[in-house]
Specification:
The protein is mainly alpha-helical. It contains 13 helices and two strands. The longest helix has 35 residues.
Length: 279
Amino acid sequence: MSNSVFNALDWWIVAAFVLAMMIVVAFSMRKKNESGKDYFLSGRDSNWLQIGTSIFSSNIGSEHLVGLAGAGFATGMAMAHWEMQGWIILVLGWLFVPLYDRMKVFTMPEFLELRFSRGSRNLLSLLTMASLVLTKIAATIYAGDVVVRTLLGISTVSMFGYQMDVFWAIALGLAFTTGLYTVLGGLRVIMYTAVLQTPVLIFGSFAILFIGLQQLGHGDLINGWHAMVFAAGDKIHLIRSFNDPEWSWAAVLPGAAIIGFWYWCTDQYIVQRVLAGKN
């Protein structure tokens, strides 16, 4: 801990957030899940704030702040390319949700079974779990590992008398805590905790932006912005030339739209939260 950049105030803030999370989880679990609709769709009593914050906090995570922001600076393929397609969620609300609602489905694999066959349901279930573990969850845990190593200055922790790499401590800790309250509380817990997590994500993102620019500009935001633009060079442009060898707009924009259509309209991660709405 000798290389830690945390101070007492940092620890108090982390402790307050953990306490707030525990209170929200306990509050959300007061109402028992009595059916599959309660468990998978939060009883279909969620309001717009819970749905919106849940989608936001599910879509944005530590991997954006730690890895993808740096990748965007290094390659020019910024995350904004994909988030520009966020408008497609309107298609989900106007076109797909009424269809899912009429079919009374809780999950996307269930929709495929009703539309095609049991085999298609099993296949989508396996693909969804594999993609979540190998992309979303793995990237999030690794990003958390980078943050802990950097801020606390540690690489190993002692658990039950054994020295364990901090990565595995984070992975097991996150899997156990989030898995426990998700399994016990279902989607309702996720919807409630998102209301707390989203302001933290937004405030933290703005803090990183302004503090980062101040550091680049030696205390001056404007100079920091100019320094960032100069360092990025031609990669500062979000839309690249048609002749760009790596990120031609002719490939990026249609490709992002195709991926966005799948993600915002058919991905279980997003659709389940919208189906939890009151109407």
